[in-house]
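PT: before anyone asks, these are the final sequences, not the draft ones from last week. 512 residues across everything. Please model them as a single complex and drop the result in this thread when it's through.
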Amino acid sequence: MQRREAIKQGFSLVGLLAAGGFAYGEFASASPVLKLRPPGAMDEDKFLSLCIRCGICVDACPFHTLKLAQFRDGGIGMGTPFFKPREIPCYMCTDIPCAVKCPTGALDASSMMSDSKLDINKSRMGMAVVDDKTCIAYFGLRCDACYRNCPLIDKALKLEYKHNERTGKHAFLLPIVDTDVCTGCGKCEQSCITKKASITVVPREVIKGEMNDNYIKGWDEGDFDRIKNPDTKIKLNSKKSLNYLNDGDEL
Amino acid sequence: MKITILRRLVQFGILALFIAGNIYGVKILQGSLSSSTLLNTINLSDPFAVLQLFLASFSVSSVAITGAFIVLIFYALIAPRAFCGWVCPVNILTDCGAFLRTKLKIGKNILNLSPNLRYYLLVLSLIFSAIFGIAAFESVSFVGGFTRGVVYLGSSAISIAVIIIAIETFVGKRLICAHICPLGAFYAIVSKFSLIRVKYNYDKCSKCFKCKVVCPEEKVLDIVGTKSGIISSECISCGKCVEVCNDDAINFSILKLGVNK
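LR: through. Structure below.
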């Protein structure tokens, strides 16, 4: 009787291990995915706190752009929507069905209003970055695939003309992203002709910098007003630089 | 047997409607069990999920809140835990596991858990939602994960199904639904005063205890063989006991107001 029990227990454990191994397979093959969220998504923390993971946005998207994260999508919040622009970019529907249909407000359509009308160009899904070492326009070849495909051509993606010093008689037509205007729809990334896209959309919070607010743009009217009432609570240690110079240890 | 067939029809029917809505554009039900749109107009949301979102963000839209109230009132009025027994697809998996468990003659539980654990997990997931600002149970929910996987044809559903069936078969009897799932616990609380209830009649009972063998919930049939009465709201209203009873001692009945117990 005891032996039979032991065999049964062993059998159970083998069954469990097999099932666990099978399920782990999908985790193990996971590749990290950039968290590009649908239009109207607020910053990542706020978005995650509101997304109920129902997939109504996925269903509403007429271009099948949005996907729900599975285990193999590598830890971006199981069941939350995202898209891979190299496969299917956001086609910038003017009625933004994904955000309008979102039941919980995780995709906030009201954040994309201008003059009480929906304006998809106000969405900030990510921002495009050019790799100038692999973009063939930087070799001097003529390619403007990304530029031509940008829904905000000459606003979000501009061409900069430059003289080609190497040949002395040709021009560079270089794609330059204006990250203030770029919505991150990813049509540039999708249309890029290089083997792996040389223009890539990345989540804004990953690479967007932030300037200290003590710098003044003299050419911007009213920019000086920003420091008329400076925050005096910040205490700077005036002796710090002196100590640094006098302190032999750190040299 | 009839009730189980009907139950499976309802469970698979709802999944089929979701698949038709999400993939083939038949606009009857769209979305998934955590939130859906009925006939392209009415929003229905999982009240437990919305409660967690509310604690996590304090800014859930009114659409989700009204949707949650519709669902909450619906389940509060009809049979106890009707969601668990009649809608939730995880119930199909746990029934599969229980079937395998009896077929493989596995008797001993590897893990013995208290059925109250799910209430602790319920409270814990609400507290964690408020502290970490993310719907705690929703982010690990096997119910949501499996349903989403099925209705959007996602790959994770297979892993989740295998794990759930394996736990039900090898680790312990009715571990997922009856001991762990905080969503079930939530609906058990909500169903305290639901109208359709399973009623036990002591006078007709011949004490064969077949009902206790088939019942997926621990302890809800404790009154069998002792006194007549109404089964507690932890019952998932699956009707297995009603089917198996040859003495007509257990039946669904409509709870009259004021006749609690």
